[in-house]
């Protein structure tokens, strides 16, 4: 996906009704020795980092349970849509563990330190409406009979992004500026934004966007 120039938006969904991702198989984990567990979790953390680093916008469609590593997968995405009946939680402390695939870092950046500590310390599960109220998900929708309401809403959002994502370099630089800038002080963040903007200036898509505005017509981006 990273190197496929035809890809503009990525939606993560489950093929299992009622479950987005239930996290690690603890029965499998119990058979591992300490070294194997450490290696497994490191690979999982690297996978989430790879998802977070995808240059295109990513959307998690949470139509069911997103627990432990499942919620960490959703947190690695740029945007999250949840059915109101979905259940989410970093439940690791209820099993004598702590989140190890980015949850302790991405959840506080998403909902704030206080709420993140409360959710991680208690291992509490919350529904889609509660997740929306605390900013964990961008949108929540009532579940439908097919069990894919969040996915359908994610597709609608993806289609809304798509015209802009047809200028993929601008979207890529915008995502990079946000992701890098949130980690540093605002002055450094402004410098990062400036560097990303400078890379966008010579693109043909920027010139086309300006021309389309002047000529009062939809832009025809070519991705260059």
From TrEMBL:
Pfam families: ECH_1 (PF00378). The keyword Lyase applies. One of its GO terms (cellular component) is mitochondrion. Belongs to the enoyl-CoA hydratase/isomerase family. GO terms for biological process: fatty acid beta-oxidation. Keywords: Lyase. It comes from Ardeotis kori. This is ECHD2 protein. InterPro entries: ClpP/crotonase-like_dom_sf (IPR029045), Enoyl-CoA_hyd/isom_CS (IPR018376), Enoyl-CoA_hydra/iso (IPR001753), Enoyl-CoA_hydra_C (IPR014748). The keyword Lyase applies. GO terms for molecular function: enoyl-CoA hydratase activity. SUPFAM superfamilies: ClpP/crotonase.
